[in-house]
Design goal:
This protein is an alpha+beta fold. 60% of the residues lie in helices and 14% in strands. It contains four helices and six strands. The protein has a four-stranded antiparallel beta sheet, with helices on one face. The protein has a two-stranded antiparallel sheet with strand order 1-2. β3 and β4 form a beta hairpin. It is elongated, with a radius of gyration of 24 Å.
Length: 196
């Protein structure tokens, strides 16, 4: 019976370590997801309906996302077309786009709203690349914070020094893997932004 006790304790410890690793991975994945969403909002010269995702419209007294009151399409790489489901919203949508500080000048033709997306200047491209770099740094901070939290939780466990070192090494491997993902995503986004 005595031989089972250390084995049981060992198994329980491994489960606790695995749980801490899983939590860290979940937090790191959340940082990557947040980064991807932030990158979508950084425009790279091509028209994309996501550019208007932050626009909300006053719809019968409630601030409603534009995507819930209109269709947003891209007939070509430089044009966005907003077609409201109710014609009486045209003026309200136009006003919301202007007030959103996205730098767009919408044209209302009575049926739809047309937005010409101007090509990016070199200076604007550099600013957007800096913004992308800043977002990636925030993601790295989130990942490192998850690592720090995981290591703190591991130290609370009453485990041998060897087991602790192995677990911390696993946390570091996980951290390195996610930092690499951030750097790869950044280089892809920067290339997309700087491409004329």
């Amino acid at each position: 019976m005595k031989t089972w006790v250390p084995l049981l304790i060992y198994k329980t410890m491994n489960e606790e370590i695995q749980m801490i690793l899983d939590m860290a991975e979940e937090q790191m994945t959340a940082s990557i997801t947040h980064l991807e969403k932030a990158f979508i909002k950084i425009r790279a010269g091509k028209a994309n309906p996501v550019m208007l995702s932050s626009v909300t419209v006053d719809y019968y007294g409630a601030q409603t996302p534009l995507s819930q009151v209109a269709n947003v399409n891209t007939p070509d790489a430089r044009t966005l077309v907003v077609q409201p489901w109710e014609k009486n919203l045209l003026g309200e949508i136009e006003k919301s786009i202007i007030n959103s500080n996205l730098g767009f000048n919408p044209m209302n033709n009575g049926d739809i709203i047309i937005i010409n997306v101007p090509p990016l200047t070199e200076e604007r491209r550099r600013d957007l690349a800096k913004q992308a770099k800043s977002e990636s740094e925030d993601a790295k901070i989130g990942i490192r914070s998850a690592r720090q939290e995981a290591n703190k939780e591991l130290k609370k466990l009453e485990i041998s020094e060897d087991l602790l070192k192995n677990a911390e090494s696993d946390v570091q491997d996980l951290t390195d893997k996610f930092i690499t993902k951030v750097e790869n995503a950044l280089s892809v986004k920067e290339a997309e932004i700087m491409k004329v």
